[in-house]
TrEMBL record, chain A:
GO biological process: phenylacetate catabolic process
Organism domain of life: Bacteria
MF annotations from Gene Ontology: phenylacetyl-CoA 1,2-epoxidase activity
InterPro entries in UniProt: Aromatic_CoA_ox/epox, Ferritin-like, Ferritin-like_SF, PaaA, PaaA_PaaC
Record-given protein name: 1,2-phenylacetyl-CoA epoxidase subunit A
GO CC terms: cytosol
Pfam families tied to this protein: PaaA_PaaC
Signal peptide range: none
UniProtKB/TrEMBL annotation, chain B:
Species the sequence originates in: Hymenobacter lapidarius
Record's signal peptide: none
UniProt xrefs under Pfam families: PaaA_PaaC
Biological process (GO), any one: phenylacetate catabolic process
This protein's name: Phenylacetate-CoA oxygenase subunit PaaI
InterPro entries for this protein: Aromatic_CoA_ox/epox (IPR052703), Ferritin-like (IPR012347), Ferritin-like_SF (IPR009078), PaaA_PaaC (IPR007814), PaaC (IPR011882)
GO terms for cellular component: cytosol
TrEMBL record, chain C:
InterPro entries for this protein: PaaB, PaaB_sf
Lineage: Bacteria, Pseudomonadati, Bacteroidota, Cytophagia, Cytophagales
Annotated source species: Hymenobacter lapidarius
Protein name: Phenylacetic acid degradation b
Amino acid sequence: MYGSASTHDLPTTALTGLENEDPILLAEFEARINRGEKIEPGDWMPALYRKQLTRMIEQHAHSEIIGSLPEGTWITRAPGFRRKMAQMAKVQDEVGHAQLLYSAAETLGKTREEMLTDLINGKSKYSNVFNYPTPTWADSNVISWLIDAGAIVNQLANAKGSYGPYCRALDRICAEEAFHLKYGHDAVVHLATGTPIQRKMMQEALNRWWPAIMTFFGPSDKMSVHTEILMRWKVKMASNDECRNQFLDMYVPKIWEIGLTLPDANLRKNEETGQWEFTEPDWEDFKRVINGDGPCNAERIAVRRAAEENGAWVRRALLTPKTQYVRPLA
Amino acid sequence: MNPTLDLLYRLADDQLILGHRNSEWNGLGPILEEDIAFSSMAQDKLGHSLQLYSLLRALGEAEPDTVAFTRNAPQFHCCQLVELPIGEYDFSLTRHFLFDHAELLRFEALATSSYEPLAQVARKLRGELKYHALHANTWMKRLGTATDEAIERMQRSLDFTLPYALGIFEKTDAEAEIISSGLFVGEDELRGRWLESISKVLAQTALEVPDVLALTPVMGGRYGQHTEHLQPLLDEMAEVFRLDPTADW
Amino acid sequence: MIHSHDPRMNRLGLPDAPATAAAKGALDQFGTYEAFHQKKEGAPFVYVGPVHAPEADVAFLFAKEQYSRRFACTGLWVVPTAAITVTDYVGDQEWAYDSLPLLTNQQAAATATADPRFGDDTAAEEAAYAAGEEDYDIFHLKKRGKAHQHVGKVRANSPAQALQVAKAVFGDQRPVVNVWAARSADFLRSDDEDRDIWTTTPDKKYRDAISYKVQDRIERFKAETGTSQAD
């Protein structure tokens, strides 16, 4: 799972540092990307490319490991064997995705130790939606379906990006997410078409989550800082607005067809432009939450920290003197 | 109780409750990769219990979901070992080691059970159980020969857990018939094989193994006597399901 | 204490405002092993990714669940990352072996005797091993962004020589944008005897997208409730 939290700390063009790069190497690098070839870890790359990719893949990895928590909230309470086993498999997959993504980020030079340290000290961001709680089983289902759906829109775009290790990780992740999406849809449909208790639970969860879902792809492109160079380098692959529009196009009809409503009276598709119209999300609130003041920020970090601390003795015990670290290869 | 039902309920309940317990580690493990591996094994256990409850269903018992999510503690036949809280990783690994050795040997024996549907299930699980045992042995050997801190933790966990592990082999009134009808080789025989099997691995560690058969086993689980931990576990597990047990979730 | 909606977290007893956590020490997450899987019997082993692990046996346990739990797999190898020698990456239209240093005549002769074709002369092979040569596994990357694939083994007395021998032995293969070579002895490989550990995946339908078929239920709902609110 992933959201474009990264779009908030992109550099402005004034700070790219490109003037310090070797122009010949830079031209070769850009020519390779223009030819449609991937960049691999052994290649020369501009410092800015390395830095932005590291940040983006690392945030994506954090989003997976933190993203396992709101659904993990219901892992011991999933109703019935089918849901119980699938919920476990899904939460497991999120941890697996984090592992894949941390590995991809490591090929750029930042160690997993450094990334985990930054996470548990609140220095790194992760997708803001995971700072909201899942007070009912239905909330967990909303994430399984719609947050994963949003993530897939994002990830399919990023899988066409320029960095080989990230693409390989995303290919695997997207293949696994196919199950998540179907599972989430299945669970939501069962509630939405079920008993009055189930339908009420589902509608309330959707109402709670809709504002967060609308922020999932990040602020409107017209509000975002300049990202042209990252688009050119195929680091950022699709605009926030395009992703959001694609998501709404694919999923709003599916939400409506099962009798659920969305808490935005202005939500409608403009058939002339093909664009969805909606009430602008509360970006001030979004900023407040992403900067630490959301309902679950403290808990999410505290949980990760507890897991790391409780497991420290195990890792200490396993470490052997001959252990050496070199970056993963690809 | 009919010996086949008696045996199946014990097996299925053990798998369900331990699978549930082990799933609590999901997202909280000591290493990302281990988190994934431990979750797979928890899922496997849930899968085993579902297959066993399905055999019970074929014998006229209620649907697996009903059996798993609506009974209360006194109706459960699991041993007390599986219901204990997950504690710290040393305990969860030790329980995994002690239980999964018994599980592997039990299903090996059941592969030739006179009750063919059960024998079929047992043969199918072989590959999974092999991995579980490999995982348990690797960890036990690594931690049991590692730092003083790790050895001390594992020793404490082993000492605490062994009496509960002996409760796996608690016999029921149906035991004689279970053996004579060829359903299963019996708990005493299994316990002997288990002791030999765990001893081989423990001998490769710095851990001291007490005279296991001289320990007082923690019994009662097979007759519905449980620790104070089981009912809260069941209440939690069924919290959503019981909102409306007739609903399709 | 933080009160969570997750009962597991409440059992953990999370402190309210934890102090800053200490930075993780080097090697807290160990070194890495690279994993290769085989999708079906007889298929070449293909690179899937790394795992962090303290030893090969643990790396194997980890890689098995991380890389084979969701899709068919019939075999797995792990090797320490540090044990792999990597050539330069070249462009998708180029040949990675061209980036190897050119050999002197003497080196070329040594390479030729080292291994014209692997394993077809037992006596010569034994002599070579006795002289300190070892087997190396060779992997090719055919296109940037794809995964390295096993192409075979060569015998050599160093990683550098293994790459030179591979150039001779696998020289007819194009394209090759990158080559990995690692001593065969450094791999931990799944056992043929343990094949049954790979046969379990197809039974886990709950992890497959195709086992969630909900369209009938949607149609039934629409039929029962009339037109949907979208209309």
